[in-house]
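Weekly structure sync, notes
Attendees: PL (lead), two postdocs, one rotation student
Agenda item 3: pending single-chain targets
PL asked that the sequence for the first pending target be pasted directly into the notes so everyone works from the same version. It is reproduced below exactly as submitted, 496 residues in total.
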Amino acid sequence: MDRLGQAAVAEQEVAETLDPADWRQLHALSHQVMDDAVAYLRDVRDRPVWQEMPAGVRAVFKAPLPLSPTPLRDVYRQVTEHVMPYPMGNIHPRFWSWYMGSGNFTGALADFLAAIQGSNLGGGNHAAALLDQQVVGWCREMVGMPETAGGTLVSGGSMANLIGLTVARNAKAGVDVREHGVASIEKPLRFYASDQVHSCHRKAMEALGLGNGALRRIPTDESFRIDLAALQEAIDQDRAAGFRPACVIGTAGTVNTGAIDDLGALAAISAREDLWFHVDGCIGALIAIAPGNAHRVAGIGRADSIALDPHKWLHAPFEVGCALVRDAAAHRDAFAVTPEYLESAPRGLASAPWLYDYGLQTTRGFRALKVWMALKEHGAEKFGRLIDQNIAQARHLDRLVEAEPLLELAAPTSINIVCYRYRPPGMTEEALKTVNVEIMLRLQEEGIAAVSDTTIRGRHCLRAAITNHRTRLSDLDLLVAETLRIGAAVASSGTR
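Predicted structure, written out during the meeting:
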């Protein structure tokens, strides 16, 4: 071997790597991590839903940048002591604060395997890319969109809605927005949604350069569904005033109460008025697979685009959302760019479609595996039954509230979100808010349950969003009992 060859070998021998020096030690620690993870989920009921972090734990997260190494076993010990005992709590059976799935162990394994394989889902000819497309196809099938529709996996519902609304803007602008920008649109666009629409739609309007004023909030009826007559009137008014009505956003499950708009009627109005029909289905689109409740989202398959969240009622670990678009070509046209370094090839790794052409991310994680593995393990029918189960649990809580004189419902229970409040006689609205906020905070601080609060047409209330596959009826019985106990204690302290 010549001197250059010898130098190369010497350099190879001293080169640094992130692989362990002793794979056997890593193997042993990995087994401990797995054992701890199984116990963490198995014993979830034995822990508080949420607990405040002591000052000493908070201080850990203000430590400076580590410059020298720490043994991995010690790093893991810090995680077990300072991170795992203080979760948000959404995997716990009595977490109902916000609309979140509760994860599943198979999905966690899938995330681990996806990270080990390390594929970038920007595209290319490899198994992860094909699996990603298969999961999009399964999502499309679950909500009844045609096989020819396109779609992409994204971080969550906010991004999925942004994808759908971007395609809607471009399709209805009347000009090449990508080339010339929103300033070239001859008539200002108008999008329509109910006054219960999620705040991500405002962000989308702003990000799309249309502005918050382009989103008209239409009044809702007594069930918090969009008022169809008011929608038609708004469309007619805007068209007469020189605006271009472009898109109707139907909500399959509002974030406040779970109300579902009449999707079939919205599809008909959109078709008649030549508007794009987008459905925000991040809460309720997957009710389409629930045998006892699928009728509630009838018409969702007629949408031009749908946003949904597998990390909600498919219980995939965070994060994974899905945007579906009926016109696959319009979807690609809204995002596709082909730089010279990402050109397709007739064979090899670059011979498959570039998935980044369907969204904003060039680098995309392997989100699909956790959805794929869980659906393979359990089957879509089981997830449909779990959705029915959550809706039935909400009905149970609804009945408990109605049967208790000191509690009242603040809104009709449509699917699985129950809005209620503690309401002893003689209290002002301001005092009621104070009492109910205190109930919410004590439920959380005592580790009993996690509910959130909201204000619905001027009435402040507690809100339980039951999307947890671990919840049992006894958990809801406990929620009511503890609401009454804490409410009585707070009210007796003199709040009026």
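Discussion points:
- Residues 382-491 form a domain with the Aspartate Aminotransferase, domain 1 fold (CATH 3.90.1150.170).
- The first helix runs from residue 3 to 14.
Action: rotation student to compare against the earlier draft before next sync.
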